[in-house]
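Standup notes
- DV: blocked on the single-chain target, sequence here:
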Amino acid sequence: MKHITSFLFVILIFFSSCKKDSDEELPTYLGTTLSTRITKLYDKNGEITDRAIVDRFSNTYGDFDPNMELSLMTFKFKADYLDASTVVVKSLITLEKDTMTVIKNDGLIIWESKDTSDYYTSHFDAFKYKWLHYSEVSMNGTMLITKFLYCMFLKPCGDDLLLPITYFYHRRGNYLSFSTLSSNGNNEFNPDYIAGFGNMDTVLVYEYTLRMRAQ
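- DV (later): unblocked, structure below
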């Protein structure tokens, strides 16, 4: 009888533990708080910290995409975990949603889309975090198209998650180019990008952070 009682006790503990796990709430995050913009300027020698120079360059070239900051207001998301490895991310503006895979890697929480995207290869080395799954395809031997699974790179901050957002303006003498959020902008700028800079290269970087608040 003693053995039967012990066995029943273990069974009760097992089912109690299972019920606790099943009742445990899965995390939900709401991302609506965008930080103020941080402006940085780099040339081939590194970051320029003289604010007078930074402000002068920004005032001259900084309005290269006047609608960009306004468009950042659309970065309002709700993210609901279905389980430990799957999250549904929904825009609170467009109501579009994506079911993404949750991956933990090198201190980051990465939400990776299950759908393949493609983009003309541009400024890939300018960003700190790389897509986990991508390939480059040559088009007519002159232009590369990158096929990838889009990622959102998030940093844990207490119970919340921080989503970096970066776009920049690269001035190569009289040749101008800039990155957009449609490529890899949910990311951080990679200072090593300046290793290939020439004498006429300057890059103006705008950085933001979207806070995903735990609900």
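- Follow-up: Residues 57 and 204 are 8 Å apart (CA to CA).
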